[in-house]
Amino acid sequence: MDMSKPWISIWLRTRETIRESLSETPRLTKMVLVALFGIVFGYDMAVSQELGDKYSLGLILWGSPLTGILNAFIYWLVISWLVYWIGSRLFNGDGDWEETRTAMAWAGVPFIAKLILWIPQWLLFGKDNFTTETPLLDTSVGLSVLFWLFGLLDLILTIWYFVVLSKSIGEVHGISSILGFGIVMLSYLAVILVLVMISLVTFGLLMG
Predict the structure, then answer these.
(1) Domain range enclosing 103
(2) What is the value of pTM for the model shown?
(3) Which of 93, 129, 143, 199 is geometrically suited to a Cys-Cys bond with 87, CB 3.0 to 4.6 A?
(4) Do 82 and 103 contact (CB within 8 A), yes or no?
(5) 53: in domain
(6) Tens digit of pLDDT per residue, the chain (208 long)?
(7) Cβ contacts of 49 within 8 Å, gap of 6 or more
(8) Within a domain: residue 1?
């Protein structure tokens, strides 16, 4: 299989692409996919946490990708294991952990595509991307419209990522995309519950 094909076919021919990629994706390719996912994830987190209020633009541009890549590999390993375990134990899925990791790596392509949006956003909006106050945007209607347009495109790509992810998990486990989406949501819920329990235990120890 031409390894340049999955980057395109994954968008609309998800199940076929995953089916072909499961046995033909080198480990390095998966590492690259996860790393690229992490770069975007790092910038998204910088936006949601408004890091521009605390740090310089240069530090955000270089530091966020590094943190994001580390978090992406943790996310990839943990969520893929949960998706594998929940899918196989609760939904009688067929996929193993390695196949699930491969599917999740390729499913990140729509999310990775947001890198294309980030380049003009850096040039147009600068630090306003990452701050609570947006003095540059406040002085330009044109830039404000572009900012919201980029935000809309970002949302569309994020939604499509979950569509592709659900289809990919469905293909790996031999189930419907709807059930694939359910497995992904249950995996996220499991992580949230564990984090809440850790927080409660930590709080209890500190208060005790």
Answers:
(1) 6-207
(2) 0.91
(3) 93
(4) no
(5) yes
(6) 454 588 999 999 999 999 999 888 999 999 999 999 999 999 999 999 999 999 999 999 999 999 999 999 999 999 999 999 999 999 999 999 999 999 999 999 999 999 999 999 999 999 999 999 999 899 999 999 999 999 999 999 999 999 999 999 999 999 999 999 999 999 999 999 998 999 888 878 887 6
(7) none
(8) no
Which residues have a Cβ under 8 Å from the Cβ of 118 and sit 6 or more positions away? 40, 43
For residue 59, give the amino acid letter: L
In angstroms, the Cα distances linking 83 to 103, 182, 183 are: 11, 10, 6
Short-list 159, 196, 166, 206, CA closest to 183: 166
Q: Which two tokens stand for residue 30?
A: 């998966």
Question: Which amino acid, one-letter code, is at 84?
Answer: Y
Distance CA 116, CA 32 (A): 16
Distance between CA atoms of 205 and 80, rounded to whole angstroms? 31
| Residue at 95 is within a domain | yes
Tokens found for residue 120: 């003009």
Task: Count the domains in the chain.
Answer: 1
What stretches of the chain show up as alpha helix (H) in DSSP?
A: 6-9, 14-21, 27-48, 57-90, 97-107, 109-112, 114-125, 135-138, 141-173, 177-207
